[in-house]
Each structure stands twice: as C-alpha cells, then as structure tokens.
Amino acid sequence: MSKGLFRFITVAGPPSCGKTSVILRTIEPLIAQGYKVGVVKFDCLTSEDHVRYQQAGVTVKKGLAGSLCPDHFFIANIEQAVQWGKKKGFDLLISESAGLCNRCSPHIRNVMAVCVIDHLSGVHTPRKIGPMLKTADVVVLTKGDIVSQAEREVFAFRVRQVNSRAAVLPVNGLTGQGNLLLQQHFQQAPQVDSLEGRKLRFTMPAALCSYCLGETQIGEDCQIGNVKTMDFS
Amino acid sequence: MNFEELLQRPLREVLQTYPYLRDFFAALAISLPNSTIGFGEFLAGQDTAKLEEFSLGQEELRKQCAEFINQMELFKVQGDQRIREITVKAGYDKNGQAEKQDLILRTGEVVCVVGPTGSGKSRLLADIECLAQADTPSGRSVLLDGQAPDQRQRLSGEQQLVAQLSQNMNFVMDLSVEEFITMHAESRLVVDIEHTVEQVYTTAVSLAGESFSRQTPVTALSGGQSRALMIADVACLSRSPIVLIDEIENAGVDRRQALQILVQEEKIVLIATHDPLLALSGDRRLVIRNGGVASIIETSEEERQGLLQLAELDHRLNRLREQVRAGERLDFDLQQFFQ
C-alpha cells in the first residue's frame, strides 16, 4: 500500500438496523489479521455506540449533528474525518451514519458505499429507503434469522428491484454469520487520499425555508423560502 | 431484449410482457395510464421536475428501465438453473486435523447433522452458505455441480444456497396466507400464481395437524401451522437448493411427510436433529466434532427396520396428543402402550 492511501467506506442505514454490530463482526477478523481500523460514528442527538467500538479496541470518533441536518453535518465533516484517518495511519476507515428520513444518502462517488437494512422493517422498506439504498455498492440484510425464508427471499428480491447493481449479502450481526463476503468487499474498497473535489452520489435535500432557520410557529406568514405545499382540493 | 424496439411498442403490450415493470414505476411514483400510448412516448412524457426528485433525467430513466428489465430477465433464468450436486471438499477441524473425506450432497437426499452445541455445525453451514474457497477457518471448498463458483457471482450474493427453517423464525408480515404466498410467488416471477398458491396452501394444510383457511392472517397461525406453511413454501417456492432444518418440533406438523415433500421437490435436506425418528429418516448422518466432519454414517438396514417401530411408537404418541387436544381423559396401561 503506497503511503497516505487507505481504504474508506461509508456505511449507512436506518436507526437500529444493526450497523454497528455488522461493522464490528466484519472488522474483528480483519483486526486479528493486523489491519488498523478506525470508525467515525455520525449521529444526531446522542449515541452510545462509540462505547461498543472502544470495548472492541477500535479507535472511534463520534460526531453529533445536534440542531443541524445530519446529512449536511456529515458532508461538512467527512473530508476532515478522512484526514484524521490518514494521520492515524489506518488501513481502513469506516464512517457509520444513520439515515433518518431516508431522503438522503451519504454515499460518495468512487468510495465504497454500504447500506444496512433489517428484515424486521418489513418488505415495503426497500422501496421507501431511496437513495441510501439505490446508490449503494453493497446492501447488507440483517436480522434474517428470525423471519421466515419467504420473507427473506421477498426482501432480497425487492432490494434487487431498487438496486440491481449492488451485491446483496445477508449478515447476522450477533453471530457474524455471513460476514466473510462482506470482509472481502471491505478489503477491495477503493483507496483514498483525500475527498477534496469528490461528489456525492445523490443531492442533499433542497433547504432553506424559515423552519431551517429556527422558526417554530405554524402559519402561512411564517413560511418563507423554499416551501412546497400539498394539494388538498 | 432490444430496448429501442420496445420503445416503439404500446405501453400496455410492454407491461403484459414484463409485468414487473409495474414495480419499477411504482417505486418512482409514476402512475400507469390505461390508454393506447406507446411505451417510448409514455417515458418521454414524464414530468422532468418529478423525475428530478429521484435525481433522474429522461435519458437516465430510459437507461434504468432497460437495466431493470435486463436484471429481472437474468433473475428469471437463474431461477430455472437447478443445482444437482454440491461438493464440500475436506478441510480441517479446530486442531488442524484434516477431515477424512469430501462430502457430496445430492438433490432428493436427506442428511442429518449431529453433534453437541459448539461442535461446528454452524461452521459447516456457514462454509456452504458463503461458498467457501479455502478462505474460511476450516479451509473447506465448495463446488457446485463439480465446478468452483465464479468469484464475482459469489461476492454478489446472488446465489443463496441455503434456505433455513428454524423454530426461532416467525412471520412478521401483516398478510393473509393467500396474500403471503402470492407475494412470494410474485417475487419468484412465477407465471401461474393461482396454481402455485393452491399448491402451497394444500401442501401446508396437509402437513398441519389443524386446518386453516387461505384468509387466516399468517401471524394468527399456531406454531404447528406456521411451521407447516413455512415448509410447504420452502419446498415449492424457495430458490435455494438446500433446505436446512433446525429441529422440527414434534407437535402440530407431520414431520415425516414434511421430509417427503421436500425430497419430492428435489431439495437437498439437511436436518440438525438428535431425534432418533428424524435421524433414521435420513440417508446419512454427518457426525460433527471439534469443528470438522468426524465421520459419515450411512443409515443401516437394522436402523431402517428400527425406524418402522419408532414410527409406530410416534404414531401412538400422536394419538394420545389428539386425545389431549380433544379434551379427553387418558386412561392407559403403559405395558399395553409399548406393546
């Protein structure tokens, strides 16, 4: 590996779908092989997941978006995160972020993009998730051990309908079963040096209405800026 | 498929040939008009502002639509390819001892996997699931019909070799039995859906101790009925050539008939069980010890004879179960019962 270059992967998925468990189970064998792995965990208000990484001996950095849109927060910080990873001398850096409204996607062109979704969320979920799933290179399906085979097959089929190019891999976040193929994807992720000038795979939401700026009152007079109204006629 | 040619045809005709396109447009919130519009004209007439919300332009929409049809047709072809033989080339146990023999699994065969918890049953299964190529801790390799799987295909996860049935599995969908089977059949791109639904339903009912209707919500089925439906569904509709069964409970399902159905449907049946009745129903037993296959026991003639007696005993126990279910008192003489 040439100096300064290392592998970088964005992992995204709805809250509580098992992202942290999947990442942990997948990087543990890599760490055992001598890989130096770091994680940046992006969240909204609070997150205790960094503790789980620390317990596993993984260097982790936590970022909370607070009052900002989490996806805007992510993109404003990701280059710094990569520079941090470079300074730390990682072989592999993973960013973990929860897609909260399913409108956005943190995936970046020419950076390996992983989307995690769980079978318990129901077979309609693949269609609702949008760009985070549609633009992913690898889709990981979790919690398959507790639903029926039929539901697993329907789920995987619908994922393929939304994103036919991606690899679709079932992984058990508790036992790690299925993690081998995901590991091999991780090991083949494109290397980066900097994200300067790179582009997102999907646009961030159009924003800037008065509510973005802190307005809380309801009413037409309070809506200024980029506002879209429904037709109730 | 020639997409350019397709664009010249009426939308209605295209939807008839490729019914799954309805899903493609539903996902983009595009409604389908019931008119004589041409397919190309229909695509070109989509509102650019609405497409923009999905980061799509006219050209991208056409491209994705063509890609979608290609993928679905590919999926259909894959579903028709049946694997007849799976070879697990010998690897090593947890102490680095070489396994004595390769394991060859053929369709229509029932193989039991025995060994205490932690002996390595999951490890064997995981090797098959990920199509190991001497790159798992066991060092085993998996061949499909004698061929090493293509690495690109392996990494894509397209080929799920193992369908699983275990007692921990539940239905989480809020659907009736009929809707449930229909949905699975649709995802397999089955042509005659009504026929398939009927087949799965009647098979499930014949396996279940207690009957249920096509309108019953799947979440309202009893344990035995759920298991019966899962088995019938896996036998008739699953893509995977191997079915792994993790102990079928005794109550509520005709277990021997379940095995028969799976075998008839040309599945390779693996059962993790320590139940003598099931174990002897298999053609072979894999004895797993310390992470490796320690030996393979063929079911002997004596064991097959013994199976008849066990089946009779099981039958009598089932009768008692029926009596309990019917609210009757069990007055019996144990001596007589075992005779």
The oligomeric state is heterodimer
Count of spatially separate domains of chain B: 2
Low-confidence stretches of chain B: none
Q: Examine the secondary-structure arrangement and name the CATH architecture of the largest domain in chain B.
A: 3-Layer(aba) Sandwich
Following the backbone from N to C, one meets helices and strands of chain A in this order, namely: EHEHEHEEHHEHEHE
Poorly predicted spans of chain A: none
What is the strand content of chain B? 5-15%
Helical content of chain B (DSSP H or I, runs of 4+): 40-55%
Largest sheet of chain A: 8 strands, mixed
Backbone structural class of chain A:
alpha/beta
Instruction: Round the Cα radius of gyration of chain B to an integer and report it.
Output: 25 Å
Total domain modules of chain A: 1
Number of helices of chain A: 7
By secondary-structure content and strand pairing, the structural class of chain B works out as alpha/beta
Distance between the termini of chain A: 62 Å
In the sheet with the most strands of chain B, the strands line up as 5-6-7-3-8-9
Task: Note the overall shape of chain A.
Answer: globular
Strand content of chain A: 15-25%
By CATH reckoning, the class of the largest domain in chain B would read Alpha Beta
Task: Classify the fold: give the CATH topology of chain A.
Answer: Rossmann fold
Give the helix/strand layout.
The complex is a heterodimer of chains A (about 230) and B (about 350).
Chain A (H helix, E strand, L loop, with lengths): L5 E8 L5 H14 L4 E7 L5 H7 L3 E6 L5 H19 L3 E7 L13 E7 L6 H5 L1 H4 L3 E5 L6 H14 L4 E4 L8 H9 L3 E2 L41
Parallel strand pairs in A: 1-4, 1-5, 2-3, 2-4, 5-6, 6-7
Antiparallel strand pairs in A: 1-8
Helix pairs in contact in A: 1-7
Chain B lengths: L2 H6 L2 H7 L3 H7 L11 H6 L3 H5 L5 H23 L4 E5 L13 E4 L3 E5 L6 H9 L11 E4 L6 H6 L5 E5 L10 H11 L5 H15 L15 H15 L4 E5 L8 H10 L3 E5 L3 H6 L2 E6 L2 E7 L2 H25 L8 H4 L2
Parallel strand pairs in B: 3-7, 3-8, 5-6, 6-7
Antiparallel strand pairs in B: 1-2, 1-4, 8-9
